[in-house]
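Researcher: Structure for this, please.
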Amino acid sequence: MSSISTPEIFRIRISSSAHLGSSGFPTSCSGNSPTPRSTSLRSCGPILPGVTLERRSATTSGGNAVSGASRRPERREITTHVAGDLGRRVAVAGVGIPLGVGLIYLGGWTLTVAVGLLAVVGTRETYGLARARNWRPFEWAGLALAAGLILAAGVQGSYQAWAPSALALIILVVFGSLAGAVFRRGPEGDPLLAVGTTLLGVGYAALPLAFAVFLRELPEQMAGMPVSGWSATHLLMFPLVVTWLGDTFAYFTGKHLGRRKLIPSVSPKKTVAGSVGGIAGAALGAALFAFLFLGPDAVHTLPIPIAALLGAVLGAVAQVGDLAESVLKREAGVKDSGTLLPGHGGVLDRFDAIYFTLPLTYLAFPFLLI
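Model: Predicted structure, token format:
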């Protein structure tokens, strides 16, 4: 038996054994459809020898499969995917948050090495975005610079002592990259893009993380005496907690109240209401943190009104960091910067706002703490 494909509403069957007037036709003036799955077009005789035209019934299992049954598995699949993604996010957070708090508590080289690894991975993810545009940064030079900047921060311990070393390392990589552009790639190797993206990766994803090391050491430096235990962690925990609370408030406010889009060309899901909620949440979180951990009895005091104001500024700056990563990913045409953190994406996806709030907090604290 052979068949001719037709649109779904008709099926044409050709029987090589059929003949004109044969009683074997499935359809006739007085006959009924031999199967309950289809209704035959009524005629006063066979249309063509061995050819039967059948119309698919609206109540057939095939029709139902299109309109109902096939849609249910799709909905089920989406629901399962969302639930699975949420589960992965919760699992990663359940491991990552205690691990991060423990590293901050330990401080020293334990924290420095962990921050250095994050800097290297984040820099590499930035270079991945560049490669998606067929740009070729000097990757190994950039990764070495990223690691070197964080290790130098661990050795020096303060921004003032670290800055000359950092500047020397950056100049070394700039000149080395330019030399590579001259002797290995030439003008056809896009030297401007190569050197520029090499430095961007480090300046964006590595250099700001050095301030995590500085904030961990800042209590001792400002107090002029050893500070141990949880008191030594408060100044570093402040921007992390405030940024996280601002992001959380922005998400739920935007989800329930968001109507007007913030910058749809950069991030279609972010709303004005979410942005306002994020700033308010960051301000509230900063005030609460100051009340609990930076009060009059603490090694360093941050007045609650000043903490709220600083929190609002950090909340706004954090959103700029979030949008900055979004515009880079949009140009590269990718959804996530990496896959290191299941449910979260890559290091850039998780730390995009932190890159902006860490340096600002470090620069502000000496003027605001009592």
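Researcher: Any notable elements?
Model: The chain has three domains: 2-56, 104-228, 233-325+347-370. The two ends are 91 Å apart (CA to CA).
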